[in-house]
Design goal:
CATH class: Alpha Beta
Order of helices and strands: EHEHEHEHHE
Keywords: Cytoplasm
Structural class: alpha/beta
Number of strands: 5
InterPro entries: Rossmann-like_a/b/a_fold (IPR014729), Universal_stress_UspA (IPR006015), UspA (IPR006016)
Number of helices: 5
Family: Belongs to the universal stress protein A family.
CATH topology: Rossmann fold
Protein name: Universal stress protein
Subcellular location: Cytoplasm
Helix content: 40-55%
CATH architecture: 3-Layer(aba) Sandwich
CATH superfamily: HUPs
Radius of gyration: 16 Å
């Protein structure tokens, strides 16, 4: 952990911003960099149904472009001397976060949990919970 980057997934929410501040603090403490990752869902569609005016691929590219703009704004707001890598991936957030963590041999994952309970917890996939259960490195979940 002490010499490997910290992976910090973000959905650009206020909670994710709070988790990023913890990641920065941990990275400063261990003198390592941060790998900031955003995952864009792969849109599902079928050209035969002709429901979408654009193809799923065009929609995904538009989502990636919007995410890149948000990522650049986030980087501009950061006031730190750390090395910060940014990555935008496409697919399932859980799978992409775990794959990125393993592929890049990160020392720790610092991520947000939106703290949903009740019906909202039941209806939404809990990305943080799945990452905690499946990650091969330590995970810090921030509320």
């Amino acid at each position: 952990m002490r010499n490997r980057h910290i992976l910090c997934p973000t959905d650009f929410s206020e909670t994710a911003s709070h988790a990023l501040s913890y990641a920065i603090e941990m990275a400063n403490f261990y003198h390592v960099g941060i790998r900031l990752v955003h995952v864009v869902d792969q849109p599902i569609g079928n050209d035969n149904y002709q429901i979408l005016a654009i193809t799923p691929e065009e929609l995904a590219q538009g989502m990636e472009l919007a995410a890149a703009e948000k990522m650049q704004r986030l980087l501009n707001e950061l006031n730190c001397e750390l090395t910060v890598e940014t990555v935008i991936r496409r697919g399932s957030a859980i799978e992409q976060i775990l794959e990125d963590a393993e592929k890049n041999n990160v020392g720790m994952i610092v991520m947000a949990s939106h703290g949903r309970t009740g019906l909202a917890h039941f209806l939404h996939t809990n990305v943080a919970e799945a990452v905690v259960n499946e990650a091969k490195c330590p995970v810090l979940v921030v509320k």
